[in-house]
Amino acid sequence: MTRRQKPGLTLKAEEKTSDLDAKRSLLVYLRGILASLKPTERLIAECVLADPEKVITSSIAEIRKDSGASVGSIVGFCRRLGLKGFADFKIALARDLAQAGLSAGDAQNGSLFEKVFHFHAQSLMETLQINSEAVFERAAQAIAKARRIEFFSIGISYPVAYTAYCKFQLIGLTASSQFDSHIQLIAATQMKPSDVAFGISCSGTTRETVQCLEVAKAKGATTICLTNAMKSPITACADIALYATPSEIKYFQAPLASRVTQLAVIDALFVALALKNKNRTAGRLQQSGEELLKRRIV
User: Fold this and answer.
1) How far apart are alpha carbons 5 and 232 in whole angstroms?
2) Blockwise average pLDDT, block size 10, the chain, 298 residues
3) Considering the entire predicted model, what is its pTM?
């Protein structure tokens, strides 16, 4: 999906259904766009996310009181999400909570380890929901046709970029991933229209990664981003935007499930690309496997 609008919740009519459709979780979507909302919209979203069960049983006047936003702002907020009004918003929210309750099972009563694994499993399912198959296919086709794929990322997302580079190399795609941010910028300046620039950023606001995509896009390269934050700056310079589910739980300020869900998206692309040319993939894997076996300690 090409995203050229400024960050924020205001969407064109044709974009509403693609951003929030029947399969996409309303709560996941709100968490994903929270950082990019306007102040009043953020007040409403935070009110909903703080206690979604309460919102379902509340009147619009009660939500106005709890959030501090006007009734008109609340109705406008619902409509910008592609819903007819506050009543439809509550129905969508109730459907979300019902599905979450079914998937949660007995996780709340499980051990710490069980809760962590359940959280990861839930995050993976939400990631599947917020990415359409059509967008995945567009990304896979762009990568398959590319002369070269360059990955741009720093910080906790860089290991994901490096893993993607390794996987793509394994099946014969010309990919690279530079560690130094200055070298990444130099690589961006050398990109051509036949290339793909792939930026990965959890927050979607990492200046170095966003700048590399902007430069690569100016050079005519197809730009793809993978981020945990919808409507973040990186999506504005991406021709194709892929999302990993946003995470509410943080550990040393890093979202707990960010890398797990990012890696799942990369794996999905890897499998799609591998299957596009089975014979070439099989040959590459066999050649690599034969040489790697020689490294084993007998």
Assistant:
1) 11
2) 42 40 71 83 88 86 89 89 86 76 53 76 83 92 95 92 93 92 96 96 92 97 93 93 73 62 93 86 80 82
3) 0.71
